[in-house]
Amino acid sequence: MIDRKISRLFAVLSVLLGLAYLLPLLWIVVTSLKTNSEILRNPNAIFFTPTLNTYAEVLGSGVGAILTSLQIGVIVTIVVLLIGVPAAFALARRVTPLWGHIIAVGLAVLLVLQMVPQPMTVIPLYSVLANWGLLGTLPGLILADIALLLPFSIMLLRPFALAIPSALYEAADIDGASSFQSFRMITVPMMMNGIFTVMAIVFITIWGEFVYAINFLPEGTVLPVSALLAQQNTTYAANWNTLMALAVLTALPLLVLFLFTQRRLVNGLSLGAVK
Amino acid sequence: MTQVTTARPAERVRAPRPAGRRSFTKLPLVYIVPTLVILLAFAAYPMFVLVRMSLSDVGPSNIIGEWPFVGLQNFVDVVSGSEVWASTLRTAFVAAFLLCSNLIIGFLAASVLSVKGRLTTIVLGIMVFVWALPPLVSGSLWKFLLDDSGAVNAVLGVFGLPSVSWLSEPDLALWSVAAVIAWASLPFSILIIRGGLLAISPDVLEAAALDGAGYWRTRFQVVLPLLRPTLWILGILTVLYAFKSFDFFYVLTRGGPGTVTTTLPVQSYNEAFSNFAMSTGATIAVISMLFVILIAVPYVRSIRMETTE
Fold first, then answer.
1. Which CATH number does the domain housing residue A265 bear?
2. Which class would CATH give B82-308?
3. Nearest-5° angle of CA B179, CA B181, CA B185?
4. Which range of residues forms the domain containing residue A186?
5. 20 to 30 A Cα–Cα from A237, which one of A8, B13, B39, B272?
6. ipTM
7. Is A170 touching B (CB cutoff 8 A)?
8. Is pTM beyond 0.90 here?
């Protein structure tokens, strides 16, 4: 069906497309390996002596930022899963017709919440957190982050809960298992793939989140890496090597995850898109 | 929620279940209580506060405290000014730009990348990685590349072309930001369209080939119509994205130079957090929420149909 000419054209186009995405990525890494004076002399030099000085600098002054990022990322991820997995389980069990209606309404609400743009939630949250004494505190930021990611996480987890055959639950019922026991011994183990997927996505998203972090953390605290990067961007005379090193650090969790799960991720996303 | 608990016994009488099942039917509510609490407090209630803010006079001094009610005054002020209309137009421009790139380039690139093979896997891998990058990172990257002495201008220089101020030239800045957003969101549309392409039965394509249709004719007269539902959803998601997109603007231009890249979300954020006019920011946010809802209705409907089927 595809003749030789077209398939050769396609190969060339594929390579061009790949380069359009690969070269900019490489450029971040290359720049982060240059010294500041090197960049001032010639920002686009291709030949230079690579150095890890920038990373040493950024890591030296940025240990606190990385710790803050880790702290926020880990707590948000754990809480989102602790709350989201049971919710996905409940929204996947059509136990009575009435519950079926509740599920339909709940899903619509989650879908709408997921579509609310973040610059629009940050304005009222600012005042809500201020009134509850949570503005400028880590718990305030963490609660806002949880609410930001929960709708999306539940929507993503639910299909995994739906895929569990109800015969398993019925068998557990006959054996006299309580609802919580079947949740713990059937639902959670069988949703592990979904749980890992959501865990990775939530962690990566929070690691790169900066709009809430900039506005909800008090001035003078140790900002997370993402907020540091966003702030660097606003200072006009940017140190490009520092900026790019921070960008690499911000992308690091994604990079690690990708190296391990690349193939499964691409196939999984294509499959998910079909449905 | 009280309705839920009172109504359930009636259901049970209608459909008697084995004793073990009964304890199970009572419980789903318990499992969504934490979600309900968090979302009510930090997602639904803030939406209510946003609306209240847009109907009151809130500035930096009374963010904690009394909010004098002013009715629709904020809306009248905002709508009678010219800035919000300019922002709406810019948002619409970004949406149109993204629609072209996501649907047209997306379709062509997805066709190219639906050939099976090692090359396709590698290229898709790179693109998915870029799509998953935080916008903060890809935005910073392009800010560097599009800088006056950045790599893009260096490449132009190699060909003897003059360098261009991509992000600070008022006539050009919005195009540049839109192009960066298009670059970052193209992988997603390729994945979606590719999914649709792979779902088309090979028999259909074979039949077209037997009827003597060439490759491109098959593409446009057979494949494209079959993809219509996919492209429709992708189109809605793309327009929604244009109304949501904020990170790239924040990183690349902050809405400037002047206000030439100020779209609705950027304007509402800047009003609230640079000018500390919380009410004006909230009003613009409510207006753009109305746009989002309007666009999202057909999407939510189609998803609901899918889940209730």
1. 1.10.3720.10
2. mainly alpha
3. 120
4. 25-37+50-274
5. B272
6. 0.83
7. yes
8. no
